[in-house]
Specification:
Layout lengths: L1 E5 L2 H18 L4 E4 L6 H14 L7 E4 L1 E3 L10 H8 L11 E2 L8 H14 L5 E4 L21 E4 L2 H7 L12 E4 L2 H5 L3 E6 L5 H9 L17 E6 L9 H9 L8
Parallel strand pairs: 1-10, 2-3, 2-6, 3-5, 6-9, 9-10
Antiparallel strand pairs: 4-8, 7-8
The structure holds fructose -6-phosphate.
The site of fructose -6-phosphate has 14 residues, from loops.
């Protein structure tokens, strides 16, 4: 796992966008794994800027959302399908037909989860997965206790996550209790994962998943077993890391050819 400590969101957005741009230049039909929430927004802003100003081309790319709320009516502004559309895919030239999300309004939830796994497989697997991390260490909506080999399925949100996400709704009562999420096994199949964490409220989760034991109580810790995981954090999110100086030294002296 590579940990990169950067001054702020702008630098994080730019470095993650560099990795996505490099991927698209060597593989125009790359499959991008798309997170929602606040963490990836600087990346989407930077990609939209590069599309607009430098013609970065997404016309052959594919996108798969990480997760979706269960029970929001189609078109609900906070459904993750809508959020991804608004924050990213409508701002670049990706074909809407190539952008997928788990169907949280399906009558048969299990079949919808299976179909999602199949669709990812049929697209050739995720090349680069963007992730945020919850204050309880979740990735996707794999809450504490999630199987480390889980696949796309329904999960119940922990109260803390509903409280954290209430800022996107009128009140906590409007935040659904259930979600569909790619499993930890699904996320681990991505060829490269880039996790972004910013702000002091993430410091404990960041320390737990990077430097604590691999354990289902902190779902993101499974990324310690990933062959190509990159963690981009700002100073506040990095403030509890024991080996912060080592991560800084390693990145500052990294061979230029290596990229992320
Ligand atoms: C969103 C997702 C979640 C968020 C996490 C952090 O698709 O899967 O794991 O990444 O809850 O959310 P923010 O970035 O809003 O702090």
């Amino acid at each position: 796992m590579e940990v990169v400590i950067l001054p702020g969101s702008k630098q994080i957005g730019s470095l993650a966008a560099d990795a996505i741009e490099a991927l698209l230049r060597r593989k125009a039909d790359a499959v991008l794994g798309l997170a929602t929430g606040s963490s990836p927004l600087p990346v989407y802003d930077e990609l939209a800027r590069r599309h607009e100003q430098a013609g970065l081309d997404f016309s052959r790319a594919h996108g798969f959302a990480l997760d979706e709320y269960v029970g929001l009516e189609p078109g609900h502004p906070q459904s993750y399908r809508e959020v991804i559309r608004r924050e990213f895919t409508d701002r670049v030239n990706i074909d809407p037909e190539n952008v997928h999300s788990p169907d949280g309004s399906a009558a048969d939830i299990e079949a919808a989860c299976e179909a999602y796994e199949e669709a990812i497989k049929a697209a050739g697997g995720v090349d680069l997965q963007l992730l945020g991390v919850g204050t309880d260490g979740h990735i996707g909506f794999n809450e504490p206790g999630s199987s480390l080999v889980s696949r796309t399925r329904i999960k119940s949100l922990i109260e803390q996550t509903r409280r954290d996400n209430a800022r996107f709704f009128n009140s906590i009562h409007d935040v659904p209790h259930h979600v569909l999420t790619q499993g930890l096994g699904t996320i681990m199949d991505a060829r490269h994962v880039i996790l972004i964490a910013t702000g002091a409220q993430k410091a404990q989760a960041v320390r737990d998943f990077i430097e604590g034991p691999v354990a289902a109580i902190c779902a993101a810790s499974v990324l310690q077993m990933h062959p190509h995981a990159t963690v981009l954090v700002d100073e506040a999110a990095a403030s509890s890391l024991r080996l912060a100086d080592y991560y800084r030294h390693t990145y500052d002296n990294k061979p230029g050819w290596q990229g992320l």
